[in-house]
Amino acid sequence: MPGTRRIALLANPTAGGGKGARMAESALARLRSRGHDVQALQGRDADEALDIARAAVADGVDALVVVGGDGMVHLGVQAVATTGVPLGVVPAGTGNDVARYADLPRTDPVAAVDRLLAWRPRTLDLAVSQGRYFTTVMAAGFDAVVNERANRMAWPRGQMRYNLATLAELRTLQPLDYTLDLDGTVLRVPAVLVAIGNGPSFGGGLRIAEGALLDDGLLDVVVIKPIGRLELVRTYPRLFRGTHTTHRQYERHRVRRVTVAAPGIVGYADGERFGPLPLTIESVPGALILLS
């Protein structure tokens, strides 16, 4: 990478149970040892962190680098989307689905920094809803209900929290009547799970939108039609392998724009709460430049 670059480094020190702070220190030291002008950023909360990141981008940094999990990537995306400023990721969370998709080193911050310093920008799509961008998957069904419960749980951390939340919500599993507007074609269908994938996975490797690409200008709308509790439990491990796509109740639509409506569901994307349905989600081709 020729010359000195101005880099803003934004960290979530609590990511990965405190791993974020240690990895941020390693990343900062590595960047500065390579002769780059690095500004270390940290907000008191997510809103302040986003304001600081946006100010750095507006000030003309050469890249914004985030240290954390998918929540931190989500925050960084809000700052750089459509600006042409690249985003670098040093994975330090429990999910790291964006890092997994880009095949970034997920346990070695120095290796992750060296990857982004190779300066190989990759142009990816984002999805947008209500003025907020997301990178991976919007959960809009049983998966969203699980996310809502998991976010209220203080223990355990990581994937196990989602597993326990899933078991808890299975007790009241009922299909809902969905209305989907798929590029202008309206579909009414009962379902237990609806997900809108810009990328293939969420929740630490749950490949619900298997086959979704982050650079095809399309969203993958996945519908799981009514199945029983036991069948859902049996199918759940297949989500990690992406083999649920052969299930008889699986349905997939590829669109540029979708509006999803169902009673009592709150949409989550990149693990972040977006708000109650109905929500309209649209693909934004080429909105993100990722250093990978």
Structure description:
By secondary structure, the chain is an alpha+beta fold. 31% of the residues lie in helices and 33% in strands. It is built from eight helices and 16 strands. The chain has helices at 19-33, 46-58, 70-80, 97-102, 109-117, 142-152, 159-170, 229-241; strands at 6-11, 37-41, 63-68, 87-91, 121-129, 132-134, 137-139, 176-182, 185-191, 193-197, 219-224, 250-255, 257-261, 266-269, 272-276, 279-291. The strands form three sheets. It has a six-stranded antiparallel β-sheet with strand order 6-5-16-13-8-9. The protein has a six-stranded antiparallel β-sheet with strand order 12-11-10-7-14-15. α2 (46-58) packs across α3 (70-80). The chain is globular. The model has no long low-confidence stretch (mean pLDDT 89).
